[in-house]
Amino acid sequence: MVANISKVNESSSANGSSPSSTEGIAMCSAFALICVLVVVGNLATIVLFTVNKRLGKKSLYLVINMAFADFMYGVLSVPFFIYFELGVYFYQLWTMGNSDLPIFYFYLVADRIFSAASLLSVTCISYERFYAIYRPFKHRSLTARHYQIVIFFIWALAFLHSGCSLFYSGKFYIYFWISMGVVSSFIIVACYVAIWLKFRQGSVATQQQNRDAQNVRLTKTLLLVSITTLICWLPLIVVSDLHLLNVEISWRYYVFSVFLNYCNSFINAIVYALKLPEFREGMAVSCCVHASLVRRQEAGNPANSNSRNNQAAFSITRVIHK
Asked: How far is CA 166 from each of CA 10, 53, 108, 157, 158, rounded to the nearest angstrom?
């Protein structure tokens, strides 16, 4: 989420905190690493959730949608953030030409679309899990069509948010962004508290059997995703709103809040790998398939295989003689 960069620069100049080029290179490298992790982690999530039939539940449509938003966030937003905000505005490692202006505006649009889609997705995931726990029988009657409609409204609201940021840069956009951030945070917290109370009462496990026990496990996993998302989003929401309200704040707080926000986009994949056995099984199957393809290629080209064996034997001989 892009804050008002000009105000950030004015604040940093006023405070006399001129950053060094060494710090700038280090920060660009850290964000580049985050970019790779976000893209790889969410791409793996999308592929596994789409291909693995055991993970092909309707409840995971929203998870796939969030993974797609985070994936595009990593592909488009993070690299441009490194180039424009870190490299040009904050650390002044390079300059921005007039030809870069269309790309900069594209970055603004893409950043706000995919960041809003990610936040709205996790908000809908929280409410969907709340509905699954408190209304399990009605939740079972939901069809793929219902989830598709929700996903449509998520992206429609994300595009509306981006449009408002470009064409209504005054109080209207401020109220729109603050309202969306506050309402989303409230829904996530309220759903988490309600589900936690339900689990604490112990009524979920007694009411639901067998297949619904997996639903409870999925709920706990997605609740953990919602909590980490909320933690990673709140600093950026607060800092961005302070900038929009003309409140000066150190630019380093803004950079840290953005870094934490980007980290959330790959933390979700780690949570899935740790908490969902189906996700780990799908990852293991994918690794086995890849290993099998490599073995077939080596079997089809014995010259390469013999060459590798000779190299290995030569290396072992050198180690023995040493």
From this structure: 22, 41, 8, 14, 13
Tokens of 33: 């690493």
- Interval 96-150: pLDDT, tens: 888 888 999 899 889 989 989 998 998 998 899 889 888 888 888 999 899 999 9
Alpha-helix runs per DSSP H in 248-276: 251-275
195: which DSSP letter? H
pTM for this entry:
0.79
Residue pair 116/158 in contact by the 8 Å Cβ criterion: yes
Query: Which 3 state secondary structure label does DSSP give 250?
Result: coil
Contact 123, 161 (CB under 8 A): no
Give the 3-state secondary structure of residue 141. Answer: coil
CB-CB contact of 86 with 31 (8 Å): yes
124 touches 41 (CB < 8 A): no
- Under 8 Å between Cβ of 102 and 47: no
At how many degrees (to 10) do helices 211-244 and 101-134 cross?
A: 140
Phi-psi region of 250 (alpha: psi -120 to 50; beta: other; left: phi over 0): beta
